[in-house]
Write a structure and sequence with these properties.
With 446 residues, the protein is α/β, with parallel strands linked by helices. Helices cover 33% and strands 17% of the residues. It has a three-stranded mixed sheet. A three-stranded mixed sheet has the order 3-4-5. It has a three-stranded mixed sheet with strand order 6-7-8, sandwiched between helices. β6 and β7 form a beta hairpin. α2 (39-55) runs antiparallel to α15, α4 (83-93) crosses α5 (95-102) and α15 packs antiparallel against α16.
Length: 446
Amino acid sequence: MIQTREYNFDGLVGPTHNYAGLSFGNVASQHNAGAVANPKLAAKQGLQKMHTLMSLGVPQGILPPQQRPNLKLLQDLGLTGTTAQLLHQAHKLNPSLLAAVYSAASMWTANMATVSPSCNTIDGRLHLTPANLSYNLHRAQEAEFSHSLLKHVFSDPRHFAVHQPLPAYRDLTDEGAANHSLLCREYGEPGLELFVFGRNGLDDKAQVPLLYPARQTRLASSAIAQGHGVHSHLRCFIQQNPMVINAGVFHNDVVFVANKNIMFYHEHAFLDWPVMQQQILDFFNGDCHFISIADDELSMAEAVDTYIFNSQMVSLPDNSMALIVPVECEESDAVVRVLDSVIAANNPITHIKYVQCRQSMRNGGGPACLRLRVVLTPEQQQVCNQQLIMTDSLYKQLDTWVDKHYRDRLTSNDFLDPDLVLEVSSALDSLTKILRLGSIYPFQQV
């Protein structure tokens, strides 16, 4: 019998995965700027993580990378000429501009959209709003294609509503599900939607000065909740602690992860947490678990370095839960002690699964960054694109596809190579056939 279940839709790492250090406030991204990337290994690590989740019995979907380089952006900026001329003009204008149009950051689908399940919304449909990601150019360029792709995947208007991204104003900056969590008793039952923001919007005052930007605004989060028609008693808004933003917590999912009625987080994650904690306790009539890790157990610096809270907390077929954590956690004695304590405590988390996603980690994206969580009813499962659901056969096809099309070394010097553009187009054209997506990319529509 098909049940309402949570699907993890992971972004497939694109052929232009690189370390350009474009994300100010993302410590790993900045620290590894200029390093040699291995797109082939990055894609294989991502696929292996998806296969691991599937093997555990967790429904696993896949979303294709965006077309890169984004030559249309260069043309919109007034550059003209052949592909080679566009690339050289962009480099001459600003090397960071060239790096931006090559960015493979769409692989972090936790930033792709905010998703409200149908049991929470007034019209009974699942609602998705693609993030405008307007703070960073290399991410903001994703919004248009993300909207188009989500419309393609969740196409039945009887079951799904895919909204336009919010207007790209600084006071409406939206970074997607990385700042949004669903708390519920069971998938398919109404639950609290926790919207986390770094600043209000139209009011930039913070309790402490910010070294790094507070990307998500409350104004944006409120607009999304309103647009989705989330029942008012199911909306919760809470502010990130400015201290953790200064420590490199550019998204809330770096210090907080939840599944159903279980929350695992660093004690300094939020402002005014006791008030929100009481609201959550009242909603669940006390039947929930707060797994708070104190600073003297694990420093914020080590939490950011290992991405322990950027784990995936998933429900397994036997109703237990597992934490899917990066292998970097296994290399930290302090983190291992924390994870051992979680398993030993009285909560549904009974498994720790270490996964290798080091290529993504070096750019500041752990296991949770790579997936968009979507709760689907039986009817919704049947009408979404089934070819995007991971199977053993699809995994083998995609692994072979990566071997054929991806380079195992990429630096910023390669951005001027027109052959790379042709290689990417060939790879994506082949991918759309494997996933039966049709002509979704701009180069296929010329």
